[in-house]
Amino acid sequence: MSEQESPPLRVCGVNGVNGANLPRELVEVLNEQDRCVPLLDVYPIEEQDITVNNIAQALENGRFFYDFLWREWDDDEECEDYAGLIEKRIQLYYDIQDGSIPGPIGERFKKMLEKYRNKQLELIEYQNSIRDDPLPVEAVECWKKYYEILMLCGLFKFWEDMRLR
């Protein structure tokens, strides 16, 4: 490595963590680099001590929850049986994993989930690009994007109901 090249940095900033529990040197490096990533984008290096392995497992559990079980509209709806809804989503996950739902159909579900996430991000970016007083064409486009997301939400509800699969 030449003198001008610096070695790749393998640390990242984490928001919402008590800095008193981190080594002082790490906090200084993080502050100097001014780097932040979402917590679920952190991947601990394997073959570390048991504490790091436990953190890695907790992060994987969080990723599974947010990637497969939780939906953005869960916060918007009043659900009397949220635990039952999560059980249905877990069952859907296992049905896809064990082949009860054929591979191509399971892939279609995963693509639909990815499409939903992309449409959600697209809507947020579009809303952020609109100034305070939107033009009628901008409002119509925003509603189109919103209703496209609502249609995908309805399709997910069909997938989650085992009677309708």
Automatic annotation (TrEMBL):
Protein species of origin: Acipenser ruthenus
Annotated SHC SH2 domain residues: 20-165
A cellular component annotation (GO) from this entry: meiotic spindle
Protein's name according to its UniProt entry: SHC SH2 domain-binding protein 1-like protein
GO biological process per UniProt: male meiosis cytokinesis; spermatogenesis
InterPro entries named among the record's database cross-references: SHCBP-like_N, SHCBP1-like
Membrane-spanning parts: none
